[in-house]
Amino acid sequence: MSTVAAAPHPAAPHRTARAGLPRAARDLATMTRRSLLRMVRYPSLTVLIVLMPVVLLLLFVYVFGGAFGAGVAAGTAPGAAGRAAYLDYIAPAVLVMTASSIAQATAIGVAMDMTGGIVTRLRTTPVAPVAVLGGSVVGAVLQTLVAAAAVLGVAVLLGFRPGAGGAGWLGLAGFFTLFAVVLTWLAVAMGVAARSVESASNTPMVLLLLPFLGSGFVPVDTMPTAVRLFAEHQPFTPVIETVRGLLGGTPLDATTTWTAVGWCVALTVLGWAWTRRSYRRPRPS
Amino acid sequence: MPTSATPAIEIAGLTKRYGAQTVLDGVDLTVPAGTVTALLGPNGAGKTTVVSILSTLLPADAGTARVLGHDVARAPQAVRHLIGVTGQLSAVDPLLTVAENLRLVADLFHLPRSEGRARTAELVERFGLGDAARKQGQQLSGGMRRKLDLAMTLVPGPQVVFLDEPTTGLDPRARRDLWEQVRGLVAGGTSVLLTTQYLDEADQLADAVAVLHGGRLVAHDTPAGLKAAHDAGSLDDVFLALTAPTQDRTQEEVAR
How far apart (Å, rounded) are the C-alpha atoms in residues A253 and A240? Predict the structure, then answer.
């Protein structure tokens, strides 16, 4: 460090000796604790973002379900049978939407942190950006898993019966965690890159819209060619299909699953790189 | 008072533009170690820009800036190890308590647990935050929050502290409390660059006063020296004379 014979000060200077992973891991733990404390202190936000997918689920099952059911399961009569078939069809999509909904809240929270004084202070310290923002990522992923379990519970109350076995649940937990990490890093990147809190709340709308432009709520083969081609090749479709397969206990299509995992890894790297690039960007103070 | 040949802050030819607007136009300024320099200037004179460049938040377009000999552009991490910044935005987490906010900084700076505890306890005591230790940031008064903000800045023991308008919006008592803290800090050997709108604040705290106007340093002297040079009774008069919109700045330039 410095060889300057600086003025004496009672406090010790910043520790620089321990470098590398343990240091980053410790910072990550510190920032995760902050993130979890904030969720506990401000629970209404968590409740609000869990409520969003639940309302969506109720709306789609009880308003559209009776009619849409016939479209997703051939030979299903409209009405109660249609509703049950439609609940089965959209439960995976609603789980995915839960992650999207939390991603939006994460982007807003990160943007508020970035424009406020806290991150400005941390940017003047040697603490690594990955630790500053990684805390929000870990917190949001845990929040996503808890919220998804709650939403799944509501779906079961409505009559949804998952067909997954032990391995299926394990696979689902693992895959969904990976997916939550992807969406959260993208959300963090959107929050860091946003010029204002307003734009940080708008950009993640795309994450809420994409499940509709995929196989989430209706089969893609009912869509016009241009929309169908987009739907088949956007990341949410293989993700939803993989969740659907794991949750339903039906055999997974290997190509679809690996495509989903590939998208997840690629988009995580993108989100992380985008975050790093934007973090040190000068911003008006 | 300087205890070292290396100045705390050394700025040469510092220039910053935002689009067509030149905010800093070749600023030179040296702050000797262990002293307080107050940076004065009208709103928009570039005081915060100077602090942002020195604290590695903003790149300069030209010129150099060094903190204890480290170039802020070439060795930002080295600079970040030495500085503490209390800006105009509150850096206090509103949802964490006073104790949690202080502990957060201690943890992020990897103070050993016992030392971190001792350090935060000392700061809580020094800043009179004991009764509020369990209150959340959002429950504190403006003065208390500013004190906590400064206490958080001091947790790692920075050698150079930047205070960007630290007492703006505070009541007279809270301002005086904060001045006391700054005096204590400097008595302990810390170097301070202070920006302020309050000229009595500069008069009270600063060893040297630098006046920014139109992107240039138009004066740099001791408070007494400035008053004598301008035959003025208060720094207010000096400030008004130096930053008058129509004056020819170069005539007023005071060499140090």
Answer: 12
